[in-house]
Amino acid sequence: MTVRSTFEQLSVATMLGDVSESGQRAAAAQYAAAAIAETDAINRRVLGRVPPATVSVDGRLGAPLASVRLNGGVILADWAVVGDVLVWIGRTLQDRSPIVSGRYRDAHTLFADAVEVEIGKDIPPASQYVFLNPVPYAHKIEIGKTKSGRDFVVQVPNRIYERAADDANARFGNVASIRFSYRAPLDGALLKYMPVRGPVSRAASALERELRVPSIIVTLRSN
Question: How many other β-carbons are positioned within 10 Å of the β-carbon of residue 191?
């Protein structure tokens, strides 16, 4: 998956011949925009969402694409490092999911700072991202056993989230902290761990424990 597109030495005049300068710049912008859109489409197809990106034109963040220099200009679209990590994890979870109805495979959900990122929406910058699967049998798929003692899932190896977290950490551990854990989703948000202190907290703590499902926690490392 390519999540970084670099356009170097854009000599549009060579490609277009006697086209006006404004026409050349428009062509450069169109070419760059198409490449960026193609990468966004790949990310959306794999992850269901588009990771945040920054675009610079000849080193100027947010400058119009059509302002690129015609000789030796550079248009750089740089998807946040977290985009690499999240796309890889999302794809890996899908690839390793058992498929019967497809419900589990299609239910992997991403949260940014404890708020669900809806399918089709762009991924916002966040200090922490969480992948989880809210289906009621997610825990069974991860580590469940049948009465005979065999793994609940036979179509694929179990511990899907745990193995994906370990593999992602081995691959991206230099830029992000990636670990397996459990989180409790409810109504598009994540419940916080509630210590048992009094009847209200006891009920909240019990609900949080009941709703916990296998999760992957991604936190970017500081530079």
Answer: 19
Nearest-10 crossing angle of helices 81-95, 21-47: 40
**Per-residue confidence at 5, pLDDT binned at 50, 70, 90?**
very low
Q: Mind spelling out the 3-state secondary structure of 66-102?
A: HHCCCCCCCEEEEECHHHHHHHHHHHHHHHCCCCCCC
Q: Which amino acid is at 60?
A: R
Yes or no: say if 218 and 129 are a contact pair by the CB < 8 Å rule. Answer: yes
pTM: 0.65
Q: Token digits for 157?
A: 């190896």
> Can you tell me which residue has the tokens 């193995």?
163
Distance (Å, rounded) from C-alpha 186 to C-alpha 86?
A: 22
> If you average pLDDT over each of 9-13, 73-77, 136-140, 201-205, which comes out highest?
136-140
Q: Are 145 and 152 in contact (CB under 8 A)?
A: yes
Rounded to whole angstroms, the maximal C-alpha distance in the chain is 79
Q: How many residues does the chain have?
A: 223
Among 7-11, 40-44, 91-95, 96-100, name the most confident range. Answer: 91-95
